[in-house]
Specification:
Pfam family, one: Protoglobin
Domain Globin-sensor: 14-193
CATH class: Mainly Alpha
Helix content: over 70%
Protein name: Protoglobin family protein
Number of helices: 11
Shape: globular
Strand content: under 5%
Distance between the termini: 31 Å
CATH topology: Globin-like
Order of helices and strands: HHHHHHHHHHH
Number of strands: 0
Oligomer: single chain
InterPro entries: Globin-sensor_dom (IPR044398), Globin/Proto (IPR012292)
Radius of gyration: 18 Å
Number of domains: 1
CATH architecture: Orthogonal Bundle
């Protein structure tokens, strides 16, 4: 039986990532499946980003996070509805965030899951929680979970449309499923740490 230092899981993000990766079986074969499919998946990044943002735009609870300086908080008053209507998917703020999300997807699809990637994935959780980061973003955990769940569905649907042979398709879906669970853990840790303190 392998010993796991549970206190270190909370303090050392790389140790935590390696533990969760080993536990769920994410390893070199998964990374290989992702890299080998990159020539097919990278051209899908704009479509992936658009589908994610279409979902954000369907709900005020997610779309309000694109208002400048987080002025979309629930207590902002009656002008919130007007401001949400004025914030279109073509707005400069939205385009900037879409570009950032696209860069995130490109990194996941094309770079190794090394220490730099682990830190990058961890930052995705930290920057969306104002209490754990000096950020103007304050996205509730429920919205992050909804995003990651919808993202899984979109990614798996896009993979199914690639026309890969069944074993390769299954390997790629499994690999991305594990990546999304790893990302979910690195998001949740920033919220749960605050809840526990």
């Amino acid at each position: 039986m392998k010993h796991i230092d549970e206190k270190r899981l909370e303090a050392d993000v790389e140790y935590r990532f390696q533990y969760v990766a080993e536990y769920i079986g994410f390893g070199p074969g998964d990374e290989r499946a992702i890299r080998e499919a990159a020539a097919l998946t990278l051209p899908l990044v704009p479509r992936l980003v658009d589908e994610v943002y279409d979902a954000f735009h369907r709900f005020d609870a997610t779309w309000r996070h694109f208002l400048s300086r987080q002025q979309g908080k629930a207590d902002f008053g009656t002008s919130l509805d007007r401001r949400l209507q004025e914030l279109t998917p073509e707005h400069a703020m939205v385009k900037t965030r879409k570009h950032s999300l696209g860069r995130y997807f490109v990194r996941l699809m094309s770079e190794p899951f090394d220490a730099a990637m682990i830190q990058y994935m961890d930052a995705m959780g930290r920057i969306h929680n104002a209490e754990s980061h000096r950020s103007r973003l304050d996205v509730p955990l429920v919205q992050m979970n909804a995003f990651l769940g919808q993202l899984a569905d979109v990614i798996f649907g896009l993979i199914r449309g690639l026309g890969l042979e069944p074993d390769r398709e299954f390997a790629l879906i499994r690999a991305y499923s594990k990546v999304l669970w790893l990302q979910n853990d690195l998001v949740a840790r920033h919220y749960l740490r605050l809840a526990g303190s």
